Amino acid sequence: MIGPHRDHECRPTRDRAGLLAEKGPFRWSQGPAVPYRTSRIRTSPHTKSYRLLTAEGKRYPRADLRRLPTGIYNCHGMTFAARRTQIPDPEVVPAILEDDGYARVSPGSVREGDVAVYYDGREVAHTGVVLQVEADERLLGHGRAARVMSKWGSAGEYVHYAHECPYAGVAGMTVTYWTDRDEFRLEAIRATAIR
Predict the structure, then answer these.
(1) Average pLDDT of span 16-42
(2) For the chain, what are the domain ranges?
(3) Phi, psi at residue 43, to the nearest 5°?
């Protein structure tokens, strides 16, 4: 089966915010089961999510709000699970990249559909999908020309420049790009076979 599927039936529970949630393992087409969680968040002017949503919009004026806050998925769930679930453990992201055949690409080779992975030191902090790459080569060298779609914590889903979001511009934070395009998969396979 292509993509994730439920390993067993989920049991509804209440999370810390008292929201109805489902928990259970999530299995990828290749590799081990991945723990996941979903919940439903209501957005009104009186909720924390709404206040965060409006604050982030002011801090990053070139970011475009695409979807309102939801607890159904997080950034990793948006990137790798088609918005169906949260993947709360960022330590599984490298395994997903490897199991699904992603290869790291330079900022100059980034294309639409590639994945942006934000690291805090050596740990994954955030992920998103590249929607657009601007043609200015001066910007591509720094990765600033890539427009990324990602979910910002408990705020909404935004389209933003790769280095203009709450997960970039912080000391120790770096962005790498990954692709599942065949031309890069073959290069990665050849490099691995040579070792």
Answers:
(1) 48
(2) 43-194
(3) -115, 115
- pLDDT tens for residues 119-146? 999 999 999 999 999 876 555 555 457 9
d(CA 88, CA 37): 7
Question: Which pLDDT score is estimated for 147?
Answer: 93
CA distance 112 to 95: 22
DSSP per-residue string spanning 84-151: S-B---GGGHHHHHHHTT-EEE-GGG--TT-EEEEEETTEEEEEEEEEEE-S-HHHHTTTTTEEEEEE
Kindly state the helix (H) or strand (E) to which residue 57 belongs, with its residue range.
Answer: helix 48-59
Give the separation between CA 191 and CA 137, rounded to whole angstroms: 27
- The CATH number of the structural domain formed by 43-194 is 3.90.1720
According to DSSP, residue 169 is labeled S
Claim: this prediction has a pTM higher than 0.85: no
How long, in residues, is the chain?
195
Residues pairing with 36 in the sheet:
24
Residue 37, Cβ density class (10 Å: 0-12 exposed, 13-18 middle, ≥19 buried): buried
